[in-house]
Amino acid sequence: xxxxxxxxxxxxxxxxxxxxxxxxxxxxxxxxxxxxxxxxxxxxxxxxxxxxxxxxxxxxxxxxxxxxxxxxxxxxxxxxxxxxxxxxxxxxxxxxxxxxxxxxxxxxxxxxxxxxxxxxxxxxxxxxxxxxxxxxxxxxxxxxxxxxxxxxxxxxxxxxxxxxxxxxxxxxxxxxxxxxxxxxxxxxxxxxxxxxxxxxxxxxxxxxxxxxxxxxxxxxxxxxxxxxxxxxxxxxxxxxxxxxxxxxxxxxxxxxxxxxxxxxxxxxxxxxxxxxxxxxxxxxxxxxxxxxxxxxxxxxxxxxxxxxxxxxxx
Length: 314
Prior knowledge:
314 residues; alpha/beta; 2 domains; seven-stranded mixed sheet; 48% helix
């Protein structure tokens, strides 16, 4: 079973990115108990896309591997559970090779990538996780001892470069917010942009419709807002309907106003009269300027927003 909505999003997200490179299975059962591997990947002999498009993720997917993404930093127990999944898979593959009278080398056994929003010194020390400077892996990628065939990726420690973008989207807080903005601002002809924006927008809509949202979920909704705004505009331009998510027609003034009200509500809480009166002013702004303000909403105080709208009206 999926641990939480983040798991389902992460599976769809990684599947979208990795499918051009090889075979992807999500929610793969392991025989030892009723448990699942989040993402199982086997590279294709000839990838369907330029691997350079995926930067660091393409290096991780150079060999067969398991991806276990976490919304919150995994505990030592959860990390050991991931290791158990890995070695269960190793055992299955070795038994299969023996039945078929084939050999399986160490390098052919899959590697485990644990994707964590952060990684404490205690966890790194406890598992002997260290940077691999010999092979020029970037800061934030910590390898356990060689024979364990496992690494923990501390997403918040990755350098902010185009090569790490795809992994930083899976982070938390400011790390994720910045990455989503970068994704939304990619060139319109980028091979992954539109599909990933749709996945992110759908995740946000799922969270938005949830009752009794936690503070973390409210923050996540704000982090995903740039992708949501951009995707709504794509749907409007393509003449699609929001029936994909809600069954309401996209692109009309009322629908856009409701979206703006939703973003303001998530940022400032219950809409008071002062904030509610800002909605018409926001809707009168040219689309690029309105989008820019909404992109940066999580960084604006009430006073900042009032001042920005005042400047725009002058």
